[in-house]
Each structure stands twice: as C-alpha cells, then as structure tokens.
Amino acid sequence: MLCEAAGYNIVIVETVGLGQSEIDVDLAVDMVILLVSPGGGDSLQAAKKGIMEIADLIVVNKADGPLLSNAQHTAADYS
Q: Which pTM was predicted?
C-alpha cells in the first residue's frame, strides 16, 4: 500500500518462495507468479504445494540450452 500511495503502478514483491508459509503473500498482491527450475523433482513439488495452489502463473526458468528438454518436461508436469 505504501508503494501505491507513492505513485508506483507496478510493485514486485519477492519471497523466499518455498512452502505453506508463503501463501500469505496472496493477500498483499494482485498476481502470484511461481518460478520453477527444470527438473525440480517431486520433493520440491510437494514442498511448494501451498504456493502452487495460489499461483496465478507458473514460469519455468532456465528453459534453454542443455536444460531445454528438462524444462519442457517440467512445464508439462505443471500444466
């Protein structure tokens, strides 16, 4: 709210982003974007369960070069 009052139209809020404790950020923002790495594995997916349920957009980063195939599989897993 403070940033909006100062006239900023876009404010990016970054969290540590892992686990149930991060879902409170949903109350303070208009959109939740979850960044995931290619081939994160089931253990990370389970840990991110809370944040995945509130994410408006899931982005697979590092999706080029030798990680392209892993990134495509990861994107398919999240879709």
A: 0.72
